Amino acid sequence: MREEDNRSGIVSSVIFIRDRNSHGQEVSGYIDYAHRLKIEDFEVYFSGKKRLLPRPTDMSFYNWDSQVAVWNSTPNYQVIADNPEGLLFKYKRDRKILNVDPKAQPGDNSTRTPIQTELYIQAVIFDHVSRRKT
Fold this sequence. Notes:
Oligomer: single chain
Distance between the termini: 18 Å
Largest sheet: 6 strands, antiparallel
Structural class: mainly beta
Strand order of the largest sheet: 4-3-2-1-9-8
Number of strands: 9
Order of helices and strands: HEEHHEEEEEEE
Mean pLDDT: 94
């Protein structure tokens, strides 16, 4: 359901993942799920052949060992990295702000869902329902 809604533009999901990469380094980042669905075949993740991990090309990426931090806007989100209260993402279609701070509300038309899993150190999905028609 989430895949279909992201492909159609009804929902835009941001996936936060914190885990170890193939080199044993702890990495974390925010992935624009709808954008990655468009540019990548997710069957390897859905089937369990590969684990979904953040990349330096995603909305945000942090390598805890090397302390490399990168952020990139996507076709769906503008990254607001200079906010004193923390990282924010502005959804370009309706200009609503997604706040990923776990102590704050995620924003209008947005939900935060922590995922209990053995696959990752931490995983959270933020779903934003767009107010504008595609």
